[in-house]
Structure formats: structure tokens, C-alpha cells
Amino acid sequence: MQDQVFTIPWFFDYGATFLWAVSGAIVAARRGYDLSGVAALALVSSTGGGLIRDGLFLQNGPPVLVRTPVYLFIVAAAALLVLVVGARLHKHRYFSHLVEIVDALGLGAFAVVGMQLAIEAGLSLPGVTLIGVVNAVGGGILRDLLTRHEPEAFKPGTLTVVAVLGGCLVFLVLEKGFEVSPYLAAWPTIIVAFTIRVLSIRFDIRTRPLSGFEPKEPGS
Fold first, then answer.
1. Chain centroid to CA 152
2. Any idea what DSSP says for residue 210?
3. pTM of the predicted model, to two decimals?
């Protein structure tokens, strides 16, 4: 019997893509970008992890982003939404909480997708883990770089990369160690990543800089 493959439900995939695109578009709008800049940052924020995965690591043909028009339509809709009502949207008290919840759920889900593709490509387990992390946080890293910020994933803060790594390890232990199907292993992965991320936000659990090193400004 063939192993079941985990696929993100379309409504969650598209919904998460839309919210991350809106979030990226708002960041661009706050920095005074024009419509093309807003659309570009929305695109990178919502699909950057998949672009890095497909274009840099797996190189298995055109990225999923351009194989179907759906994601481009979603990004365009997000940019237009921010253009029309963005000033009111980002001030809504529930918007930031909604983005945090979707982000926390998406970490494990998109990590699983990246790991499955890496396993199919025959990569080593460390490589599989790396691609899982990149697929989950790559969009945020690209967004920060394009806006000339140090990537939040690299700085001390609430647990994002740690949450993804925790989920990735759960997936590999279940799928490789106990031969659980990818579909069944995916759900504990999502739960672990979500739980770590949400608890770190709720209780302000943060990483710390390495002891003995004083933070310096870039270029100093």
C-alpha cells in the first residue's frame, strides 16, 4: 500500500497565502512604496519560501507559483485590497492576531510540504530539514531583505525557527523512525510547530544573543 501524501487543504493554502500577501503589502505601504512595490512585497511575503525551495534547492522545473495562475491572482487581490482599504485594515485590532494564528498554523504545514518534496528528491535528512525550514520562513526572510531589515528569523525574538525545527524533527522521527505515513505524520508536526509558536508569543518566550558578544550595528 502506497503512503498517503499530505497536501495542504486548498482553502487553508489559499487563505494563508492571501493573509501573508496582505501582511506583506501593508509593510510595503507603510514604507511608502507604490502599487508595483506593494504587489512585489506581497508576492515575496506569501510565496518566497516556495520560490527558494523550487528555484534554489530542488530545481525540479518551474516553481509552483507560475504553474498555476491562482497564486498570482491571490497576490493581486491582496495588493488591491490594501490599496483600497489598507489604512483601515492594518489598524483593526483583530488583524494582527489573525495573521499570527495563520502564520503559526502555516509553519508546520508548509514545512511538511517542503520536507516531502525534499524526501522525494532523495536528499539527506539534514537537507530535508533545511528545506522544511526554508519553505516555512523563507518568505519572511526575503521580505525583510528587500526592505533593508535584518531578517527577523535571525534575530533574538519569539520562537519561529525553533518552532519549525521542532515540527520538522517530529515529522522525521515519525516518518523515518516509525514508518508512519506522511499524511499521518503531518498533523503532529503542525500541532507541535503551532504550539511552540503560540506559547512563545503568549508567554513572551524569546531567544537570546550569544553570551560574551556585544551586538554591533551593521557595518561597524
1. 12
2. P
3. 0.87
